[in-house]
Amino acid sequence: MLESLLPAAGPATQQGLAELLAVDLATVQGWESGRRPLANMKAGVLLGMRRRLAVLGASPAVLASDDDAEP
Question: What is the reported pTM?
Fold first, then answer.
C-alpha cells in the first residue's frame, strides 16, 4: 500500500521504504496493518515525512490528500 505512494523506481520492500523514510521497519509494518495510523504521528514528524516523500517523487495529489482529512 505505502509503496504505491512512490514512483515505480521506489523501494520494493517494506524495509526499503523504511530506510528511505528514516523510520523503523516496525513503523512501516504498523502503517500497512492499520495498527499505527499516520494520523497518530506528531505534526513535525508527519511534515518531515511528507517532505521526504515529495523529494522521492510522490504525487503532489497524494501528498495533499490528507490535508482535507477530518481530525
Answer: 0.64
